Amino acid sequence: MFQPVGSTSWHNRHREYFRELDAILRRSGRENPTVMIIGPGAVTTIASLFLNDAATNAGSIRKLIGDAARYSDQLLRRIPFLPLTSLEPCEVESILTVPHRLIVVDRSQRILDAVARRLHGAICLCADLSLGPPPATADVVIAFNIVCRLEDPSKGIRNVSAAVNPGGWLLIDDRSADAGLKEVPEFAPVAPKIHRRATTA
């Protein structure tokens, strides 16, 4: 009955990094970049209505409601018949102003189906990051809070970094970066949580 499905914790959680990415892409002049999101997670549609929004300053009662919704959703999203929504891909699409192609990779077909319902142009690929690199590469790879949860984070960071095209960007949380990105010398930080791959190996 229960299926493990990762969760996005709240609305606009990574908004400032997506805005910075948009500015970087506009400055770069790269035409129609491919943007890949790995493991975007999902929440039940009902719980998403009550989640906190990082873009607004909520009072203590509102924060309490949002936290309760997030923790309740950890159980609810595992029930197969409850509809899901995947927040991160929709937020990327709403913030990026440069024309781009979107790829979403997740090991859960249920999450990919939720993405496809909202974003008809997204390419959805089912793959498990713990087994190998994603089945595509991209100019931008977004992998927040994925690598640090894997059994072998070192292997995970190698698989994620392999998906980034030369000269491309990797958006990753600090815990995941600390799990081994320093061992991938062709990456250098260019902004908080944003790393760029060298144009040549």
Features:
single chain, 201 residues, alpha/beta, Rossmann fold, 7-stranded mixed sheet, two-stranded antiparallel ribbon, 34% helix, 21% strand, globular
Separation, N- and C-terminal Cα atoms? 46 Å
How would you name the CATH homologous superfamily? Vaccinia Virus protein VP39
**CATH topology description:** Rossmann fold
Output the number of helix runs.
7
What top-tier CATH class fits best?
Alpha Beta
Class inferred from helices and paired strands: alpha/beta
The structural domain count equals 1
Q: Helices and strands, in N-to-C order?
A: HEEHHEHEHEEHEHEE
Average pLDDT: 90
Strand content: 15-25%
Account of the 3D structure:
This protein is α/β, with parallel strands linked by helices. The chain has one domain (15-42, 85-197): Rossmann fold. The chain is built from 7 helices and 9 strands. The chain has helices at 15-28, 45-48, 60-76, 87-95, 109-118, 153-162, 174-178, and strands at residues 34-38, 43-44, 84-85, 101-106, 123-126, 138-143, 164-172, 187-191, 194-197. A 7-stranded mixed β-sheet has the order 5-4-1-6-7-9-8, with helices on both faces. Strands 2-3 form a two-stranded antiparallel sheet. It is globular and about 50 Å long. 37% of the residues are buried. The model has no long low-confidence stretch (mean pLDDT 90).
Task: Map the helices and strands.
Layout: H1 15-28, E1 34-38, E2 43-44, H2 45-48, H3 60-76, E3 84-85, H4 87-95, E4 101-106, H5 109-118, E5 123-126, E6 138-143, H6 153-162, E7 164-172, H7 174-178, E8 187-191, E9 194-197
Parallel strand pairs: 1-4, 1-6, 4-5, 6-7
Antiparallel strand pairs: 2-3, 7-9, 8-9
